C-alpha cells in the first residue's frame, strides 16, 4: 500500500506545470483587471456625456454598426462604442477563466467551478442591461444597476483571485470569529458606501447624457452627506478591525491586506472631499470611480483572507491509502 497525498486527486495551483500556472494567473488576474477596467471606461462614458453617443444597440446607429465622426457628436460615439467593445474582451476572459477552471482546477471543488461561471453569466447580463440603458435613454433606474452589477463582478473576481492561490482543502477560519464578524459588517457597510456613491453621481451633473444634467429628484447635497457619513462609519470599523488584527495576532497576509484597504480608503476620502469642494471636476470624479473599483476588490480581499482553503497535502492526517489494485 502506497500513501498518496489527497492533492494528487485534486491538484492545487502549485501542482500544475509552470506554463499552466502562468496561464491561470494571467486569466484570473486579467479577468479581475478587466472587470475593474469596465468601471473606469464606463466612468469615461458618463463624464464625457457619451452615454447616447450610439443611439441604438448593438449597432451604433441604425444600419451602422461602427461609430462615425460628426460635427455635432464629435468623438462621443467612439467613446461609447469603445466601452461596448471592452465588454467583448470581458467575455473572452470570462470564457477562458471557466475553461481553465474546468480543465485544471476542478479539484478545488464544485463551489469554485460555480463561482468561476459567474463572470461569464454576469458579463452576459451586463450586455443586456446595457441594451436596456440605451433603449431607456439613460434612465437612472437602469444606469445604477449597470454600475452595481460591475461591482458585484469585481467582488466575485477578487474572491477567485484569492482562492486560486490558496489550497484545495476545506475552508477554515484563520482569524478569531469576532474578527470574521467585524470584517463582514465592514463589507456590508462598504456596500452601502458604494450604493450611496452611485446615487450621488446619478443626482449630480455627471449623469452621462449631453442633454440632461439632473436625472434624479434627490438633493445632491443631502445624498453626498449621507455618502460621507457611510464612509465615516466604514472608516471607524476599519480602525477597529486594524487594532483587533494586531491585538489578536492575525496572520500576516490578513494584516497586509487590511493595510491595503486603509490606503485605498484614505485615497478615496481625499479624492471625494476634494471633488466635492472643487465643483466635481471630471478628472477627479473619474479617479473616484476608479478608486471605487479598487476599494471593492480590497474589501473583498480582506474578508476572503479571514479564511483559508488549506492544501490537504500539508497535513499527514489527510493522507489516504491506495490499495495495490489502484496502482495499476
UniProtKB/TrEMBL annotation:
InterPro entries: COX15/CtaA_fam (IPR003780), COX15/CtaA_HemeA_synthase (IPR050450). The chain crosses the membrane at residues 26-45, 86-105, 112-134, 140-162, 174-196, 225-246, 258-277, 283-303. The keyword Electron transport does not apply. It is a multi-pass membrane protein. Pathway: Porphyrin-containing compound metabolism. Keywords: Cell membrane, Disulfide bond, Heme biosynthesis, Iron, Membrane, Metal-binding, Oxidoreductase, Transmembrane, Transmembrane helix. GO terms for biological process: heme A biosynthetic process. One of its GO terms (cellular component) is membrane. Pfam families: COX15-CtaA. This is Heme A synthase. PANTHER family: HEME A SYNTHASE. One of its GO terms (molecular function) is metal ion binding. It is found in: Membrane. The keyword NAD does not apply.
Amino acid at each position: 500500500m502506497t500513501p498518496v497525498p489527497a492533492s494528487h486527486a485534486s491538484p492545487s495551483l502549485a501542482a500544475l506545470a509552470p506554463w499552466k500556472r502562468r496561464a491561470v494567473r494571467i486569466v484570473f488576474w486579467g479577468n479581475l483587471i478587466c472587470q475593474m477596467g469596465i468601471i473606469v471606461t464606463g466612468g469615461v462614458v458618463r463624464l464625457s456625456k457619451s452615454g447616447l453617443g450610439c443611439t441604438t444597440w448593438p449597432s451604433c446607429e441604425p444600419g451602422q454598426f461602427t461609430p462615425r465622426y460628426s460635427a455635432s457628436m464629435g468623438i462621443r460615439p467612439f467613446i461609447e462604442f469603445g466601452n461596448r467593445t471592452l465588454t467583448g474582451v470581458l467575455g473572452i476572459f470570462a470564457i477562458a477563466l471557466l475553461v481553465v477552471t474546468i480543465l485544471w482546477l476542478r479539484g478545488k471543488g464544485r463551489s469554485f467551478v460555480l463561482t468561476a461561471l459567474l463572470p461569464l453569466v454576469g458579463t452576459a447580463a451586463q450586455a443586456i442591461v446595457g441594451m436596456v440603458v440605451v433603449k431607456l435613454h439613460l434612465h437612472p433606474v437602469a444606469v445604477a444597476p449597470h454600475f452595481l452589477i460591475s461591482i458585484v463582478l469585481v467582488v466575485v473576481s477578487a474572491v477567485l483571485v484569492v482562492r486560486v492561490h490558496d489550497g484545495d482543502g476545506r475552508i477554515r477560519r484563520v482569524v478569531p470569529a469576532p474578527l470574521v464578524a467585524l470584517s463582514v459588517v465592514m463589507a456590508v457597510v462598504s456596500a452601502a458606501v458604494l450604493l450611496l456613491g452611485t446615487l450621488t453621481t446619478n443626482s449630480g451633473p455627471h449623469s452621462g447624457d449631453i442633454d440632461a444634467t439632473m436625472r434624479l429628484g434627490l438633493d445632491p447635497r443631502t445624498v453626498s452627506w449621507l455618502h460621507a457619513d457611510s464612509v465615516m462609519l466604514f472608516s471607524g470599523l476599519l480602525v477597529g478591525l486594524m487594532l483587533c488584527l494586531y491585538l489578536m495576532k492575525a496572520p500576516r497576509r490578513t494584516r497586509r491586506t487590511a493595510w491595503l484597504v486603509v490606503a485605498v480608503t484614505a485615497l478615496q476620502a481625499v479624492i471625494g472631499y476634494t471633488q466635492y469642494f472643487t465643483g466635481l471636476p471630471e478628472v477627479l470624479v473619474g479617479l473616484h470611480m476608479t478608486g471605487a473599483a479598487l476599494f471593492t476588490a480590497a474589501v473583498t480581499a480582506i474578508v476572503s483572507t479571514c479564511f483559508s482553503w488549506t492544501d490537504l497535502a500539508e497535513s499527514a492526517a489527510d493522507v489516504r491509502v491506495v490499495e495495490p489494485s489502484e496502482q495499476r
